[in-house]
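Batch job 17 of 40 flagged for manual review because the log was empty.
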Amino acid sequence: MNALRLVLTVSIIAGTALAGGEFATGGAELLKFKGYLISDLYVYGEEDADPDMGFDVIAAIEWVPTLNEWLDAKIAFKAKPTEFEGEYEDLSLTTEDIVLNMHFNDAVTFSMGHFKRPFGYNYTRSGSSMYFLDRAILQGMGEFKNFGKRDIGANLNLAFDMVSLDLAFTNGAGDNEPEDDSNKQFTARAEIEPVEGITLAGAFGSHSEDDSTETYSATGLDLYAVVEYPLGETSTLNFVGEYLIMGEPVADNVDLTDANAYAFTLAPEFQLEGNVLQAVRPAVRYENYSPSYAGDTDPEDDMTAIDFCVNLDLYSSRNTLQIGGRNMSFQSDDMDGYTDMYVAWRMKF
């Protein structure tokens, strides 16, 4: 029912805008949508996997109503039919971003709402820009939710010629969660572009939790570099490297080793002149994740992922065929490695 209400609401809004051009009392530009669709066939490589393969589909849609050059908003939701879980919990249509933006000038923007915290490049980058079907495994780490993903709060963005700063103050409750305590979270990110095509960045996050008598805090650090190096008039070498250190909120007398993770992506891009095949982007990503642990004994439960994919732009730069896979390996002798494969069709609009 929640999904039906949202679809009906968006339909009514769009219909009203089409009929009258704008709301009678508003004057905002309403018909501004963007997003992407992905349909894929996934082959699961784990031993005795059941199902051993399956089709899936997902749609991400953003509505960006614009009042004027200073004021706009974003309402984004994601549709995934396979996420329906029951009568009282339907995740097939979920709210992602609900944000109000005030642009004081080209360099200063203040935002409030539900948005991605400025922490974790492999999570904050747009899903439509990824070189692989799946995001990096590091964004799914248990510790990552303490500092990254979405939250409700306010953000100040300062964008100058070479430097961009984000300062976020949020509930700290997490993605689509109501506030449940008095603790708030602070996240800061700085990006520097020393020369065209190279971005160096660092982000810091704090997180606190309560028990019946105490408040425990943890911090997280994110460092990354993004490089777009031109190889020629029609080719570019893309590189992304990211390193994360993330703690867990525990008592001071607990000897905790923080979680850490790193990911490196290499993706050359070749623009072609064909009417059908317009660009080719082979890509590989290597990443490793070490969970946090208490005490002096390392549980040796690291995991490693190697993603590989060939991206083919067909008939349009916004229409991409992805052929790839992911190899998972584990430090623990109790877990066997495996390789998944997929063919995906992504269309951006």
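Reviewer: the log was empty due to a logging misconfiguration, but the result itself is present. The first helix runs from residue 2 to 20. Unflagging and moving on to job 18.
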